[in-house]
Design a protein that fits this description.
Elements: E1 14-27, E2 30-31, E3 35-36, E4 40-49, E5 52-57, E6 60-66, E7 69-77, E8 91-94, E9 97-99, E10 107-117, E11 121-136, E12 155-161, E13 164-166, E14 169-172, E15 174-178, H1 184-195, H2 207-216
Antiparallel strand pairs: 1-2, 1-3, 1-10, 4-7, 5-6, 7-12, 8-9, 10-11, 11-12, 11-15, 13-14
Length: 218
Amino acid sequence: MAKIQWDQEGKRFYETGVSNAVLYVREASKYGNGVPWNGLTAVTESPSGAESTPLYADNIKYLNLLSAEEFGATIEAYTYPDEFAVCDGSAELIEGVTIGQQARKSFGLCYRTVVGNDTDGQDHGYKLHIIYGAQAAPSEKAYASINDSPEAITFSWELTTTPVAVTGHKPTSCLILDSTKLTPEKMKAVEDKLYGTEDEEPTLPTPDEILNVIKQVV
């Protein structure tokens, strides 16, 4: 049996950054084609639930019941795609004229984070994060006068999610692909679906469909 060793060379991992965001607005029973989300600055994933409710019997703690776990997030950006307007409760009356307080469509979101370590730095790898069934809550927009310390407005939205089915597992609202554990060929096959190719539109596959894509790559 090998003795445990800490902080070995090449094993000091970290995760940073957020980029390559893609928005998929849900249309009826499926997600529409993906569009790039430029200016995304932060995604804060906020799982909740899984809270313990202790039960007692025979003068001892008998067992713990855990509540259902939910997935939420906060996204921040300097701007957002025109396609996101319907997810933010806006509707266009005619080109250039919009109104608020409308029904909000659900959407999917894909973004990329960097995986680094002590030997390769930020070139070690990356992760693709996919969020399903998201809905955005109304957000505050603070406009201020331009002054000698100008700042761009940052938009922010709180997200709640509705999980999607996964064969053999409980439904989920998030899926993560790790390039340090999947081959480049398998990552590319999934990215071709998410980002599109010269011949195919960018789409948001379900977790089961992503698994099938990965399994088909030798």
